[in-house]
Recover the amino acids of this structure.
């Protein structure tokens, strides 16, 4: 069931289109991530959901309530939408407890219980409550910001790159903690980020934005392994893209004949592998290549190689460092899973064969 | 090994010299307060109490407390309204209004008094004092409030809105608390100016401690009575300083986290636009229009005859000379403390720094009175040296603040980099820190010089006989009700105060990063 529906939202700043006919549906209780490079319009979209910006046209409906209809909009303080910003945006003149209780009705004294409950919920030590925000670490600040936003039991929680200011190690642990917390609280969440790995790991639904448009939306696995375009493929991670001839559910490419995910397509098309699908073997009877360079990087090594019979640029494969290859070695390939075929103009979809 | 020890010795000696110089300056700054305590001890407890606990002191205290406690909140409200209109609304011509809001600073307070009393000769007493000092001094509150408003992180206001706050709730709970330091600091500045103000209150016949001390000084020359009034005035200053530090509290107000704040959106005034323009127009007319109009009137009325160049010329020359000498002396005196507070801050240094600020907070009349009493009978009595010493004590904080911020902008790493590139310590210091701090030092000097230019009570009491400055010239003519002859002096003071105002304005813009 659709909980949040964004319908044909558009906004232009002069000749620049910040949002171009954006539509998106989000189910109740889910975690959605909007990922895109900077300037893609994802922050504008978030600010419209929060009520800080008004579109020129389009509608936003949250839980059956119309929030935005064209240029008329419900003001932010009446929306039941929570917000956690990149750097937390904690009120520097208030203590942690006062920050958490900011949106609660009544005085701080009557809120003590609620504040304690919220700080416990986000895993904040009660001794922190009397401190000022500048005495907290970045991760703690984000937890306070989350507790503050949760205090009003919002219907929708917006997260604006809330992990990007954190150290790498802290980032993934905070991300996981917050994901679990929001899951158990049952709050519908929308994360905006430019970090594709963060989007893929945090959300159960990912939308990719660029130049004010949503390019593709779907479950993370679907987007990762079946991107619509080569651009999306490379934005979401390393990809090896090779030209191939498709027929009967297989593709013939420089790496040999491989199974593809579009069994009915035939003709010329580009196909894509993720580097982790390809393992190196000593069996050079099939497609083979030549190692140009091996860069050791701890657990994995980056192996640069050319594929015999493939004229494109050398490809780089991440391989476990336990396999021993050296520049000049001849190697074969073992492919796990299916390759993804991109739709192309000359690809014909034949009638069902089986 | 020998190299290491010589290195340590160099460092220590540099800090040592600077510390000694800083202690010396701070000791001088503590002289006025120490002097009053010494007088009190000399005349004995009962005489001291007798001089302080009497009806006259009560009257003065009531007047002083009333004028401060009415003017400061009024100026604050006015400055806050103006700052909000010029910084956060779509007021037409906001940038121009923001300049005009600061412009009354170019007119010395006693010229404001002169303008209003010649326009409305019946103006006098508390109401007039509050009205004119609000107009003259509210820019001191406008500058920091406007700067703070520009610096506020709009994300905090967004967050407050998403937490269910209405516009007025956001202003009350998020914006206003973050303006506390600006309101407190600006209010302190206005309060201290009110305590020190002399000329304005004489014009409108309103007695405060400062005017009473000078009256007393004129009648009994150097009695303990004047000194004890000075003591009460010092206590008033201390109360204001304590109030400010309470308002300031120990909480942090700076923006948390990295990243640049977005520019704040401007609110649409809508139907209030006409009312806002009217308010701004009325304030500019009162704060700038009245003095300029009156001055213009007297300049026209006096005609060419009012321009007594044989007097104005020398007065201008002496004023410029005193200002330049005072500025240089003050800046040199400020260097050790400013340098220490950036390069080697510690508890002792902070105590010393506090001494300096305290002296700067004292009214010129208290410092002058102390120096008169100490130097009388000495060869430096009513000499240039004593006058310069008074200027140094009065304006030390101005010079120190400018110097400190500019030294802080020259990180010690640059000095070290210069040293590692083969410069000797002295040449490294010269090529980096001094080179980078020079603009700040210059702007500090300008601030001091322009302060001295319109200084009245200390100059009157301490200057060598026959000294005529623009301020004393203006004062003696307007005292003889020869307003036309006084006008050219006022005009020159306004002209010379213009750069000061521009500098203050630019500084407050730069501090806020725009």
């Amino acid at each position: 069931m659709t909980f949040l529906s964004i319908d044909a939202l558009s906004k232009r700043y002069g000749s620049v289109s910040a949002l171009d006919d954006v539509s998106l549906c989000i189910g109740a209780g889910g975690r959605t991530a909007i990922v895109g490079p900077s300037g893609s319009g994802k922050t504008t979209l978030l600010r419209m959901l929060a009520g800080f910006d008004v579109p020129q046209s389009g509608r936003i409906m949250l839980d059956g309530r119309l929030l935005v209809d064209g240029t008329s909009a419900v003001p932010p303080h009446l929306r039941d939408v929570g917000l956690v910003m990149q750097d937390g945006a904690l009120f520097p003149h208030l203590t942690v407890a006062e920050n958490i209780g900011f949106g609660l009705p009544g005085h701080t004294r009557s809120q003590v219980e609620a504040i304690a409950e919220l700080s416990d919920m986000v895993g904040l030590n009660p001794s922190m409550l009397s401190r000022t925000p500048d005495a907290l670490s970045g991760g703690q600040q984000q937890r306070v910001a989350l507790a503050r936003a949760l205090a009003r039991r919002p219907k929708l929680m917006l997260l604006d790159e809330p992990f990007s200011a954190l150290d790498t190690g802290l980032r993934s642990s905070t991300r996981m903690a917050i994901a679990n917390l929001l899951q158990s609280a049952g709050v519908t969440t929308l994360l905006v980020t430019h970090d594709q790995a963060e989007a893929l790991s945090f959300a159960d639904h990912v939308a990719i934005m660029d130049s004010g448009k949503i390019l593709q939306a779907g479950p993370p696995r679907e987007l990762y392994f079946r991107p619509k375009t080569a651009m999306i493929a490379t934005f979401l991670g390393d990809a090896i893209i090779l030209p191939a001839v498709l027929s009967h559910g297989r593709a013939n490419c420089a790496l040999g004949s491989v199974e593809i995910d579009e069994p009915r397509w035939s003709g010329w098309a580009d196909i894509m592998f993720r580097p982790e699908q390809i393992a190196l073997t000593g069996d050079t009877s099939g497609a083979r290549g030549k190692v140009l360079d091996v860069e050791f990087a701890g657990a994995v090594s980056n192996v640069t190689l050319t594929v015999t019979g493939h004229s494109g640029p050398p490809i780089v494969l991440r391989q476990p460092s336990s396999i021993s290859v050296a520049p000049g070695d001849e190697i074969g390939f073992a492919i796990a899973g299916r390759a993804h075929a991109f739709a192309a103009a000359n690809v014909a979809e034949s009638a069902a064969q089986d | 090994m020998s190299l290491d020890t010589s290195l340590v010795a160099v460092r220590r000696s540099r800090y040592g010299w600077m510390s000694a110089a800083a202690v010396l300056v701070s000791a001088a700054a503590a002289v006025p307060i120490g002097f009053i305590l010494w007088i009190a001890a000399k005349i004995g407890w009962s005489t001291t109490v007798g001089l302080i606990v009497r009806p006259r002191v009560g009257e003065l205290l009531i007047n002083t407390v009333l004028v401060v406690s009415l003017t400061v909140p009024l100026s604050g409200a006015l400055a806050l309204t103006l700052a909000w209109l010029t910084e956060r609304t779509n007021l037409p011509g906001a940038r121009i209004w923001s300049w005009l809001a600061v412009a009354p600073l170019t007119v010395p307070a006693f010229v404001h008094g002169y303008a209003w009393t010649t326009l409305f000769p019946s103006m006098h007493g508390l109401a007039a004092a509050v009205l004119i000092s609000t107009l003259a001094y509210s820019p001191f509150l406008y500058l920091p409030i406007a700067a703070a408003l520009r610096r506020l992180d709009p994300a905090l206001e967004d967050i407050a809105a998403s937490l269910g706050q209405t516009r007025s709730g956001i202003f009350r709970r998020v914006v206003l608390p973050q303006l506390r330091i600006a309101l407190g600091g600006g209010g302190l500045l206005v309060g201290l100016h009110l305590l020190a103000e002399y000329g304005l209150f004489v014009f409108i016949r309103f007695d405060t401690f400062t005017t009473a001390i000078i009256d007393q000084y004129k009648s009994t020359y150097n009695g303990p009575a004047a000194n004890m009034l000075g003591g009460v005035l010092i206590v008033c200053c201390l109360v204001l300083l304590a109030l400010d530090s309470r308002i300031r509290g120990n909480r942090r107000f700076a923006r948390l986290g990295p990243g640049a704040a977005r520019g704040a959106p401007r609110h649409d005034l809508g139907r209030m636009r006409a009312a806002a323009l009217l308010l701004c127009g009325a304030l500019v007319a009162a704060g700038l229009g009245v003095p300029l109009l009156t001055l213009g009137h007297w300049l026209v009325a006096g005609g060419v005859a009012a321009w007594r160049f044989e007097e104005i010329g020398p007065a201008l020359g002496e004023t410029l000379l005193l200002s330049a000498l005072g500025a240089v002396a003050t800046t040199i005196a400020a260097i050790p403390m400013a340098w220490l507070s950036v390069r080697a801050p510690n508890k002792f240094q902070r105590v010393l720094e506090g001494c300096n600020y305290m002296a700067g907070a004292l009214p010129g009349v208290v410092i002058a009175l102390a120096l008169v009493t100490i130097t009388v009978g000495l060869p430096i009595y009513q000499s240039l040296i004593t006058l310069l010493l008074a200027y140094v004590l009065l304006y030390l904080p101005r010079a120190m603040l400018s110097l400190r911020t500019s030294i802080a902008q020259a990180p010690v790493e640059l000095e070290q980099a210069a040293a590692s590139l083969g410069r000797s310590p002295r040449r490294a210091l010269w090529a980096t820190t001094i080179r980078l701090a020079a603009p700040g030092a210059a702007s500090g000097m300008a601030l001091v010089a322009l302060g001295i230019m319109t200084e009245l009570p200390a100059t009157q009491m301490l200057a060598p006989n026959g000294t005529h400055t623009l301020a004393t010239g203006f004062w003696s003519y307007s005292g003889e009700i020869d307003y036309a002859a006084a006008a050219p002096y006022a005009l020159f003071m306004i002209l010379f105060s213009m750069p000061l105002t521009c500098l203050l304005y630019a500084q407050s813009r730069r501090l806020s990063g725009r």
Observations:
- Helices of chain A lie at 42-50, 96-100, 112-121, 138-150, 168-185, 196-202, 220-225, 230-236.
